């Protein structure tokens, strides 16, 4: 049991360290190169910024449940950590933990956290003035006032209700092919029949997975939670100091973890520090980051008018991938 | 029917944005009245940037006051000093040397170029298309270099003075050669930018049919400048300005009045401005750049209009003992605020800033003192 714990802990630790480089790679080597500018240092977004935030003074959010509000980034981090731990082969001896259902459940917790973050906070940009701040002759003086974080929380509900469909459909495509929800079985199936990625169903599901990856990471063009033109940073807007550091770290960690999830489900290579297979995990995570960087650099942000049909279209592809996997 | 874009009577929620917001270049407040994230009505409030320039100008010697007008705007600073100087010249009956008039036109068109590139960059930034935004700002840098070369500064060039232009803004052969070279590169870059924008279907899907201002509504709201021309009205004050008589250029118009039409308006006007500058360089008359032989006399209120990157700019004042009396400045954004509010209706909250930006607002220069007379 101790060996299992050490293997899982070491694998997660190494993956975590590598994940801190991914946001920097995306911004320095993809966005900045495409946009012909110097860009930040590679270590800046994923390492130096979180360290800097850890030493900053915290601000008290105007949250209705401050304790819960402050703990949400930490919960998100733990959720991602658990997903990665479930993907390590040593965890496969606990089938209930290392299963697709657990991973989907954990990802849903992550999404629900966005709703709470948005609903519980109210930044200075959303506060009403201590005096009537509507000019003389202003329209609709008695109307209910919403605020940016609230708007973001509503968008997080959209994300939960249909926005993240592509990711879950893509996750269930290998399940349909292998006939099991347990990660150990899915990996074993691919060792016998070859990587799921090299089937027609696998190719379609990989495309769907990538779109779902961008939606879950809130990157352009699917960043409905963090639209700079209205809600700015959305649910994260009021996080400062170490809580903001957790937000930064979690994003990089989720980038890496979803890449690893892909390599487990589609290539059959789980992350293990004592195996050369971990290089595949790192390469896959890097490819995803590079592709996401290219797509986001060349895309405008979607509103619901583009987001909804895009999600529905990709979800239909996901259903097709599952149907082909069942055949 | 687009003409029936009217606000609903029942308003569900208000979303206030600003006065400080990252998507807005300047502080202003927008109250968006929404239903399911669709804007039903919008209200823009300005006034936080009021600096009282007209009041400060009151009683100042006309030369000093002219220099002050340049501070009205950080984007079209040259247009303000040009129009203010032009007001004095109209009042005093001064004929400026032809070479000076040509240099003013060149500066004015260079300013239009940098303003339009700024518009494109800011518009793409609001759309979150950072690559297009960076490309537009990259192209703008060449124009800023040219303005720096001629005026000695990137923002306040101080080019126009009563009687002509400052001698330091003289166009030497070396400067003319640099102007030609950089304009060739900018033209090529702008054509490439236009190709990329129009061939990007995802980008077009985000701007087509968004923020529509029908022609009838634009005329009713007294919209001015490229925003009006984007609705199909070929109204450009340059066509009736005597300064522009020697130049051959087209008045660009678009028909749809949406974000795409506005964006294409600016892109196409860039080529027309380059055309005007080339004509000015080809036919630049010889002679002095300033005539200082004018005499100060008193004059009644004089009105002067010129076409600046955002529309028609108005300056007026009277002269008494060489000092300014009753100065009034009206910037084009003042006329366009109604259109900005109207454009937001029926579109998504995320598009609200885009609908405002499509009218190329410059609220800082628009903030003027308002005298309320109680009866």
Task: Give a summary of the structure in a few sentences.
The complex is a heterodimer of chains A (327) and B (375). Chain A has 327 residues and is mainly α. Chain A is built from twelve helices and one strand.
* Count of DSSP H/I helices of chain B: 13
**Which sequence of SSEs, written as H and E, runs from N to C of chain A?**
HHHHHEHHHHHHH
**Ends apart, CA distance between termini of chain A:** 39 Å
Flag low-confidence runs of chain B: none
Q: Write down the overall geometry of chain B.
A: globular
End-to-end C-alpha gap of chain B:
41 Å
Biggest β-sheet description of chain A? none
Mean pLDDT of chain B: 93
Note the beta-strand portion of chain B. 5-15%
Please tally the β strands of chain A and state the result.
1
Per the principal axes of the C-alpha atoms, what is the gross shape of chain A? globular
Topology as H/E string of chain B? EEEHHHHHEEHHHHHEEEHHH
At CATH level 2, the architecture of chain B is Orthogonal Bundle
Please report the total strand number of chain B as a whole number: 8
What structural category do the secondary elements of chain A indicate? mainly alpha
**Largest sheet data of chain B:** 3 strands, antiparallel
CATH class of chain B: Mainly Alpha
> Can you tell me the number of structural domains of chain A?
1
Overall pLDDT metric of chain A: 92
Secondary structure layout:
The complex is a heterodimer of chains A (327) and B (375).
Chain A: H1 2-19, H2 22-34, H3 43-54, H4 66-87, H5 100-120, E1 144-145, H6 148-163, H7 165-178, H8 183-193, H9 200-216, H10 241-267, H11 277-297, H12 304-326
Chain B: E1 13-17, E2 29-35, E3 38-45, H1 53-57, H2 62-69, H3 77-92, H4 98-126, H5 130-151, E4 160-161, E5 164-165, H6 173-199, H7 201-207, H8 215-220, H9 226-229, H10 259-282, E6 299-308, E7 311-320, E8 323-330, H11 332-344, H12 349-357, H13 363-366
Antiparallel strand pairs in B: 1-2, 2-3, 4-5, 6-7, 7-8
Helix pairs in contact in B: 2-3, 4-5, 4-10, 5-6, 6-10, 11-12
């Amino acid at each position: 049991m101790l060996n299992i714990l050490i293997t899982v802990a070491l694998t997660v630790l190494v993956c975590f360290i590598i994940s801190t480089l991914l946001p920097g790679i995306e911004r320095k080597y993809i966005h900045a190169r495409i946009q012909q500018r110097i860009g930040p240092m590679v270590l800046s977004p994923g390492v130096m910024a979180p360290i800097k935030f850890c030493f900053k003074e915290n601000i008290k959010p105007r949250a209705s449940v401050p304790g819960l509000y402050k703990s949400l980034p930490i919960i998100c981090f733990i959720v991602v950590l658990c997903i990665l731990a479930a993907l390590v082969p040593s965890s496969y001896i606990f089938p209930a933990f290392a299963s697709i259902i657990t991973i989907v459940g954990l990802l849903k917790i992550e999404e629900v956290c966005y709703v709470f973050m948005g609903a519980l906070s109210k930044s200075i940009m959303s506060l009403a003035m201590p005096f009537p701040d509507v000019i003389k002759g202003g329209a609709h003086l008695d109307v209910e006032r919403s605020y940016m974080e609230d708007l973001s929380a509503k968008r997080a509900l959209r994300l939960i209700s249909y926005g993240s469909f592509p990711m879950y459909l893509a996750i269930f495509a290998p399940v349909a092919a292998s006939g099991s929800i347990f990660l150990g079985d899915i990996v074993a199936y691919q060792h016998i029949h070859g990587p799921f990625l090299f089937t027609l169903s696998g190719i379609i599901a990989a495309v769907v997975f990538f779109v779902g990856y961008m939606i879950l990471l809130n990157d352009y063009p699917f960043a409905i939670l963090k639209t700079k033109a209205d809600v700015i940073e959305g649910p994260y807007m009021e996080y400062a100091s170490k809580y903001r550091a957790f937000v930064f770290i979690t994003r990089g960690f989720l980038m890496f973890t979803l890449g690893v999830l892909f390599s487990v489900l589609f290539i059959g290579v789980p992350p293990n520090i004592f195996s050369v297979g971990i290089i595949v995990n790192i390469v896959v995570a890097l490819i995803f980051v590079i592709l996401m960087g290219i797509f986001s650099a060349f895309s405008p942000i979607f509103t619901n008018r583009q987001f909804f049909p895009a999600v529905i279209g990709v979800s239909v592809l996901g259903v097709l991938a599952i149907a082909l996997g069942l055949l | 029917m687009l003409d029936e874009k009217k606000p609903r009577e029942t308003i569900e929620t208000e979303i206030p944005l600003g006065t400080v917001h990252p998507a807005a270049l300047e502080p202003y407040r927008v109250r968006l009245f929404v239903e399911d994230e669709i804007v039903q009505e919008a209200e823009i409030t300005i006034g936080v940037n009021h600096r009282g320039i007209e009041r400060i100008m009151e009683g100042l010697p006309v030369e000093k006051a002219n220099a002050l007008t340049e501070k009205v705007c950080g984007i079209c600073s040259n247009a303000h000093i040009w129009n203010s100087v032009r007001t004095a010249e109209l009042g005093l009956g001064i004929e400026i040397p032809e070479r000076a008039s040509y240099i003013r036109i060149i500066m004015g068109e260079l300013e239009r170029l940098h303003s339009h590139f700024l518009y494109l960059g800011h518009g793409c930034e609001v759309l979150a298309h950072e690559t297009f935004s960076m490309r537009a700002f990259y192209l703008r840098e060449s124009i800023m270099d040219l303005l720096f070369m001629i005026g000695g500064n990137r923002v306040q060039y101080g080019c126009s003075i009563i009687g002509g232009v400052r001698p330091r803004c003289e166009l030497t052969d070396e400067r003319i050669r640099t102007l030609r070279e950089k304009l060739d590169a900018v033209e090529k870059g702008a054509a490439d930018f236009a190709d990329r924008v129009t061939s990007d279907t995802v980008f077009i899907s985000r701007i087509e049919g968004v923020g529509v201002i029908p022609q009838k509504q634009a005329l009713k709201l007294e919209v001015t400048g490229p925003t009006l021309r984007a609705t199909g009205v070929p109204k450009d004050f340059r066509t009736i300005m005597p300064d522009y008589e020697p130049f051959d250029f087209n008045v660009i118009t678009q028909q749809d009045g949406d974000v795409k039409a506005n964006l294409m308006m600016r892109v196409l006007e860039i080529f027309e401005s380059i055309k005007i500058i080339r004509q000015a360089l080809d036919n630049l008359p010889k002679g002095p750049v300033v005539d200082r032989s004018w005499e100060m006399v008193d004059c009644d209120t004089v009105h002067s209009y010129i076409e600046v990157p955002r529309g028609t700019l108005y300056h007026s004042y009277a002269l008494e003992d060489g000092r300014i009396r009753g100065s009034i400045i009206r910037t084009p954004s003042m006329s366009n605020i109604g259109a900005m509010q109207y454009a937001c209706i029926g579109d998504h909250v995320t598009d609200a800033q885009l609908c405002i930006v499509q009218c190329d607002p410059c609220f800082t220069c628009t903030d003027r003192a308002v005298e309320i007379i109680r009866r």
